[in-house]
């Protein structure tokens, strides 16, 4: 294409009859450019050894420079040599890259603690399907002519969640999303279509996708304060609702915040709305259950997420508690709301009420497979194990004199941010300000936690040994009762 | 969870020390509900034989009832029996479902013609990676602490496309999306952030995701007429631009429309903008190259898509011409535009400029693998083959007296819609009104086309044999020169 469009390949065109056609007479269907190889933009980007690249990939500092396209970590695509089919050099190169990559994945999966992904799965039985381009284009309930889909699995999974969240088959609509963010984007969009002039309320500890949605959709958005636990502060919510009584309310309720794993009190949110004079036809609640949406039903005392309450939609991630090799999620809403979204069919030129068009058809099969294997009872056991192990971790951190908090309904243990970035990176901890967290998922065993605890306690003794630096006070983040700093630990 | 939250499992909680905590004293970390199995909402949904379900799955009619949650095709998730670990019944059931499903996939893949997916791939070497939860959370150029990612592959793929579209490494930003729709959603969002009061212009044959974006983003949208070929009609575009001279223009340019595979003339679009007095700082062009974005660079005379022209973004699908088991795409834009999008970091609480948060880390590896294997030269050969085969199909359709059109730069053959829905379904043809199309991808061989042609010609002779019905006139859809109806075929 670049600078070499003049040479034309020899004509090998198929039969051309005398019929008039819109193609110009001189068109040669095989007129592809002869030298398609674009010039290399940067010549010094020659292929170096993989390990050297991996070495480069380790960031020297954690500083993030916005708007700077960092190429620290890049495996360049290389053009095969002309005689490659004979030498097999390219295949050998790729095989070696993949083998090394696999090794790093094994290692990183072993030390992973900070993100809520259940890495404990075995989908060997499904590897036979990897060779198909499975695509659930558009609406799961509207047949497409594209035959290579997995809608029958998708609808089975949706029905399972509909039953969990207590909504009849003919009253819900939903689909399997690409991730928790898509669920939030969809839920909030449905809310906005139901209440075009509605104000979006979300606690400030909501996932950033909620605020991204507000900006994308050009919605007015009001941030609500949180309690120390991370839950929405309904006193502040009330003040803000009363200040905007003239407009309908669209509320994002967190079933597990990203950082602290806090579960907003759904019943109190509804009660607050009612107390402020919002009747059920003047608010829309989206429940962001990305993290704990699948755990809550199995935890006693948890505010029950159910469509018997006046909620509009629920989303949950599939790759988190369920475990799945690729990100995915489940989104369920009421059929009546989707009819509002789909009403402008002529304009959209489609009845498709999903955010995406082409949709990964493998994810529903992974979910279907796991739900069948584990069943409700299997998930119950795993929830039990996670809560137990989370308490184990929190208790041992506190015993070691480290500030730590665990919300009642959560398996997210929040604690003092380790001082050494190397340690944070090794254990892949998610950090924010002075705090870090471990999300105890089914693949996080007591053995793994012991390894982590031992290493943390040993390393930490060196960070603060000379007394020149003190561990930070976390009273603002975890409350006085959980803070182990010099001032509060008495 | 349902109606049985009273019973508490026996306490097996871990060590609890005396530290004060925000948990209530009576909290039992293992207090999971004893009977988590929700009641079945519909009892008659007992598990039937898979084949019977598959039978049900075949729609009796093509009628689509909007807002009706059709469960014609559903593989219910079933709860494992208590003694399942002994009997293995559940595993046996799942294995049989999957084996049969695989068989239908093989069959459907064989007869697939209507959708632009290259089903010709072999990713056996990558099956070793299926066991990892690979997630490229957020921005590909900003390191995350989550270690199980494939950013190094992703950046390699992006660099390859940046080189193809002639933009320097330090001047572009991009990411691997979940599908072509996400690319359009992103490109149009960037355009809107650059020109908050801009008007979106798109030809009426643009993909529906473009109009979905306009509605999502609350943008003013002007539909532009098309020529018979399906290309944007720049005369109409000019009239509409002149009517809205006071507002910046955001233009969606199709590099291959969905139905006719028409390629908008990028140069003429730019020229029209200039003629109407729009300087380069008053318009933003997004190129929707979902279908042909990867083919165009290899076709002589095609309007060249390059960042040396005043365009803002380009997107392409990864599962179409490249071929990939799951939907994916590539989105490239200018770094300067992303800085606008990311400017409101405090509000978004994230530097993430992607639409999604969690992102499938397997897709970049599939793309990287194919780009390495095929290289620019491999793609050139495949483009050549597709164009040749598309001409073969079009010519043979016309020879058989069937209305058919093939755009000069396209491998999408548009023709008379087959009268029999069974035939349409078997070959998975995409239809619109009186026309259907076949998109000739690298996996569509002459043999496959011959099978298709023979069957079509044979079946068609029965549809119109008694003369009571005539084949439809397609002059409006494909032009007089391509119409084979009784009136125009003389």
Automatic annotation (TrEMBL), chains A, B:
Q: Which reaction does it catalyse?
A: L-serine + H(+) = ethanolamine + CO2
Q: Which SUPFAM superfamilies match?
A: PLP-dependent transferases
Share an example GO biological-process annotation for this protein.
Answer: carboxylic acid metabolic process
Keywords, comma-separated and alphabetical: Decarboxylase, Lyase, Pyridoxal phosphate
GO terms, molecular function: carboxy-lyase activity; pyridoxal phosphate binding
N6-(pyridoxal phosphate)lysine modified-residue sites:
320
Q: Which cofactor does it need?
A: pyridoxal 5'-phosphate
| Taxonomy, superkingdom | Eukaryota
Similarity section: Belongs to the group II decarboxylase family.
Question: What is this protein called in UniProt?
Answer: Serine decarboxylase
Q: Which organism is it from?
A: Rubroshorea leprosula
> What lineage is on file?
Eukaryota, Viridiplantae, Streptophyta, Embryophyta, Tracheophyta
């Amino acid at each position: 294409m670049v600078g070499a469009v003049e040479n034309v390949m020899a004509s090998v065109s198929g039969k051309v009859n005398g019929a008039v056609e819109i193609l110009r007479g001189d068109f040669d269907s095989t007129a592809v450019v002869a030298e398609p190889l674009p010039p290399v933009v940067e010549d010094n980007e020659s292929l170096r050894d993989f390990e050297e690249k991996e070495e480069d990939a380790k960031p020297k500092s954690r500083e993030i420079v916005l708007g700077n396209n960092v190429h620290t970590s890049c495996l360049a695509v290389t053009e095969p040599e002309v005689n490659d089919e004979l030498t097999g050099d390219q295949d050998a190169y790729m095989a070696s890259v993949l083998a090394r990559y696999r090794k790093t994945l094994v290692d990183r999966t072993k030390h992973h603690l900070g993100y809520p992904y259940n890495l404990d799965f075995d989908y060997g039985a499904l590897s036979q399907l990897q060779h198909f381009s499975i695509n659930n284009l558009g609406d799961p309930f509207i047949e497409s002519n594209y035959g290579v889909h997995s809608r029958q699995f998708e609808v089975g999974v949706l029905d399972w969640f509909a039953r969990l969240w207590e909504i009849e088959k003919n009253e819900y609509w939903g689909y399997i999303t690409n991730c928790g963010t898509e669920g939030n984007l969809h839920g909030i969009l449905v809310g906005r279509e139901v209440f075009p002039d509605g104000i979006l309320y979300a606690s400030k500890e909501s996932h950033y996708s909620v605020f991204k949605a507000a900006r994308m959709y050009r919605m007015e958005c009001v941030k609500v304060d949180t309690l120390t636990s991370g839950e929405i502060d309904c006193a502040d919510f009330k003040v803000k609702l009363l200040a905007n009584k003239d407009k309908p309310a669209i509320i994002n309720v967190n079933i597990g915040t990203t950082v602290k794993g806090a579960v907003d009190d759904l019943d109190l949110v509804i009660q607050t709305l009612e107390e402020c004079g919002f009747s059920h036809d003047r608010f829309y609640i989206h429940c962001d259950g990305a993290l704990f949406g699948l755990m809550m039903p199995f935890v006693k005392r948890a505010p029950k997420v159910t469509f018997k309450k006046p909620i509009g939609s629920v989303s949950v991630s599939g790759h988190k508690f369920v475990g799945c090799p690729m990100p995915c999620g489940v989104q369920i809403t009421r059929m009546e709301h989707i009819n509002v979204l789909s009403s402008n069919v002529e304009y959209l030129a489609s009845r498709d009420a999903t955010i995406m068009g082409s949709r990964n058809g493998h994810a529903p099969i992974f979910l279907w497979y796991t739900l069948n294997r584990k069943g409700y009872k299997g998930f119950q056991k795993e929830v039990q194990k996670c809560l137990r192990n989370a308490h184990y971790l929190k208790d041992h951190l506190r015993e070691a004199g480290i500030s730590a908090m665990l919300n009642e309904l959560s398996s997210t243990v929040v604690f003092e941010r380790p001082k050494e970035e190397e340690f944070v990176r090794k254990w892949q901890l998610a950090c924010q300000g002075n705090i870090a967290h471990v999300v105890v998922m089914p693949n996080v065993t007591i053995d793994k936690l012991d390894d982590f605890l031992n290493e943390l306690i040993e390393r930490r003794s060196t960070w603060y040994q000379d007394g020149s630096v003190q561990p930070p006070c976390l009273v603002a983040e975890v409350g006085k009762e959980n803070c182990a700093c010099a001032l509060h630990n008495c």
